[in-house]
């Protein structure tokens, strides 16, 4: 994984754009042709299995560190598979990194924002994550994330 | 507009994420609550009309300069209106900045990528732009852009 800068309270950064694809191997060709590079240290096995979510993920990065996460379902029960059955392949979610995810979730809840996860749950890449419901964001599934070791108990 | 760094040949950067919304005024509330700020110099009129595309656009920015462009149709004939009629509000496109857009389009065409615009056309924010068809990108409408003054004739 590339090094991401440490962010402060009240700051927010785009971490990655999640894209649902049938197959990482075939779908990454376009992105690589455009100049994106795989962030995996192991080019021979560039995808990571996220068993809980029943997906494999591959992270591609541009020069200014924007990142695309290709999501390939490993099982028909995967929510990513269900997403594709309904809408076809395409952008699945936006992930933003925040500082103090527990506080951010409380603030959003108090503001009437509908949360899928009211408390953070384990995600890929050693992050704790929580999803915000698209009905509160203008139709976008938003994932908030914070490194595991910095989340307050 | 905020200052964006000049990019070199072969580089690619995420410029913004375009989100189709019914109304900029109501839809920007969630993004602002999360810490995004409007990049417009004129807070009393934060949207720009793009007459050709029959939309108003407002650009919101995070700390690491990721940008969200909210797109509000001004007319039923807008392609953004048609997109929302079919899929509801949500992410409409990803825009990447490239150097030498004319050459990039030639390279993509030679690679068999389906282009909506084979030559760049005028876009918002004094950019020349071209769209890549979602069928070639894994379901994502991709916009490529380059500042007008740097596009080769």
In brief, what are we looking at here?
Helix content of chain A is 19%, strand content 33%. Chain A has 153 residues and is α+β, with helices and mostly antiparallel strands. The longest helix of chain A is centred in the first third of the chain and has 10 residues, at 24-33.
How many runs of DSSP E, i.e. beta strands of chain A?
9
Structural class of chain A: alpha+beta
Mean pLDDT of chain A: 82
Supply the number of helical segments of chain A. Answer: 3
Broad shape of chain A: globular
Tell me which oligomeric state these chains represent.
Answer: homodimer
Distance between the termini of chain A: 25 Å
Major sheet of chain A, described briefly?
9 strands, mixed
Most extensive interface, chain pair and sizes: A-B, 43 and 43 residues
What amount of the residues of chain A lies in strands? 25-35%
Radius of gyration of chain A: 15 Å
- Low-pLDDT windows of residues of chain A: none
SSE order of chain A in H/E notation? EHEEEEHEHEEE
Helicity level of chain A: 10-25%
């Amino acid at each position: 994984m590339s090094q991401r800068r440490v962010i402060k309270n009240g700051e927010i950064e785009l971490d990655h754009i999640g894209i649902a694809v049938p197959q990482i191997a075939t779908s990454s060709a376009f992105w690589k042709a455009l100049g994106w590079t795989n962030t995996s240290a192991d080019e021979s096995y560039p995808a990571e299995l996220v068993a809980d979510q029943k997906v494999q993920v591959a992270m591609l990065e541009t020069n200014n560190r924007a990142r695309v996460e290709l999501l390939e379902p490993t099982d028909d029960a995967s929510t990513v598979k269900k997403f594709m059955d309904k809408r076809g392949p395409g952008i699945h979610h936006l992930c933003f990194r925040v500082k103090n995810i527990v506080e951010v979730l409380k603030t959003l809840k108090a503001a009437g924002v509908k949360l899928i996860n009211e408390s953070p749950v384990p995600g890929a890449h050693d992050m704790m994550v929580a999803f915000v419901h698209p009905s509160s964001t203008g139709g976008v599934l938003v994932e908030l994330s914070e490194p595991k070791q910095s989340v307050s108990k």
